[in-house]
Amino acid sequence: IFHATGDELEQVALKTLQVITTELSLGVSMGGSNDPVEKFLRPIITDCMAQLQKPELKLAKPSGKILKACAMASDPACTAITLATIPTLLSQYTTSDQATRKKALLDVLLDFLEASRALYGTAGLPTEHDKDFVTPLLTFKDRFFELFTNALMSSNEYNALRLAGIKGLHSMILLREFLSETEISYAVQFFVRIILEDPDSELQQTALDSLASLALLMPQVVRVIALPALFEMLPTSQSDMDVDTVVQKKSPEYILNAITKIGLEPTLFAETVPQILEKLGAVSNEFTGAANASYPIALLTTLLDLLKAKAQRSHGDLPQYLDNLVPHLIGMCIYPTIAASDDTESAMKNPEILNVVAGIMRVIMVHVDTSAQSGVINAIFGIFVHGNLSTLATFVTSPDQVPFTPLRSDSRTSQQNTTVLFATVIDSCRQQTVLPVENLQQFTGSLVEVTIKTPNVTQRGALAKAVGTILNKFNKGNALQGFISQVLVPQLHNVIGQEQSTSAEREAALIVYTWVAKAMVLSTNQIGYDMSGELMKMFSVPGLGKIAADGFNIVIGEQPDVMTKETFAVLRLLYKQRFFNYCIPYLVQGFESSTNGVRHNYLVALSHVLRNIPKQVLLTELPPLLPMLVHSLSFPDPELKSSTIATFQLITKDAPDLTAQH
Prior knowledge:
By secondary structure, the chain is an all-alpha fold.
């Protein structure tokens, strides 16, 4: 081990020592010099302690590893090694003035703490270890706590010593039945102080990582000590952002990042949600406008990031936030839009904030069952379709408020913008959830009509997605097939082709057309392929050709916020390959027969298709398309060039011979 030529050999040797020590310890009770374990360990301890006389030298570290490996083997071994070494190591530390030597000694003490945790168990976790056995390090607990605390709080510029202090306190907390609740609280306070006051980023991150680890095992102490301290540092007014304090205040983004790291565990998240909402309520009317909205956006993004992380870990507490968090946020977004004057300033009217709120709603909605979704969808339709706000949290009627009519093309812009929330709820519904409308075809047609007429880009995009989602999810048994093919598609064709329609209406109809095509392509419905063919015919239409070409990114691309597997869209197997096989011949033929002005649109559509199909399909079908790709590099469109170069990078790596031919 002292002269190992590589990590693998060293690990094998350490494991061998541990196994031998374990075997020798079987049936041993502490006591006598003839114990085989003590006989075996005596020369090992002697050699290692000789090297640790100069702990800053290179053989000290492997000496610590050897003692750790043997101490992990059994209670008799750990006790023997601890009693034979720790007093000397503590004495060395006390008499040393060199920071590097102190740090090296703390590293050895850390090895002992890790060995004890492996042998005697981790605090807060169930253990298979014999609970009658406790670590022999208990004898030295107070000295350990003093050493690691002093190292952490020292003003020494040698940060490695302070880092060892953080790691040591963390290891002591994790060791089963080692520190008392009071001592753990003190250690957590030290971590919080480092996070909030220390200027060194590495120390901050290490303390935060330690706190995040403890939050999962001991959420109560983090809830009582760390969370309140962090939330206290968050501003509640614009003036808080400008105040200079003796201690350099951390930015709200920094504090919220810390909250994100430690707030995952259900009891901690339950504490985090109301405090963030309280802060949001306090600042929403003050931090307004694009320049000042970053703080409210950061508050909500913290909730969204925590919810996403909880969803990835399959936390079971997500459904409970459907009944309190979702209505609260919807209310906060709607109330400012019904004030007597639309000039009322509120950060909650900011479109970016609405998108974050939509993301929060989506994460929660997809994790509840059909019954719970039905309750929400009924309330949402009551609010957005009928203007009934009585189901919202803390709703109070006022004589000077205006009606809430977000699904009209002539309503307030701020109300129209909230349709992103309406569309998100529809998109998050399971296929079994029933939309509370008497006639789904008529309702869908009304959404299309508003989408075409509205001058509001946000409302147009949200409602177009909602239409696509409805047609994708609720066309069970082709129940909507006739409506789509005989009513909706001809209606959209009519608007797109009418010269008397305004350019905005034609563009809006084309956008709806594209989302309907996507809904059908995902379910491999023939209507989707027919619509895609019609989209290609629009490449030559002035003013619409580029929009139609970019529409292929919507049709075949994976959109993060709508019609995904996670939101229960109807996705048929191999839908991308089928779309590719249908479109490519038409794209090639259209490119070859069109003029230069139109060719660009065929290349744009091709780039979207190639970027969104599985790599294996791309490599198999690419050879006849390479001349088109080479040609696309001659066009000035930077996005087209970037996409083409990315395709070439892929095939150069996986099919270099193919690239070389061109």
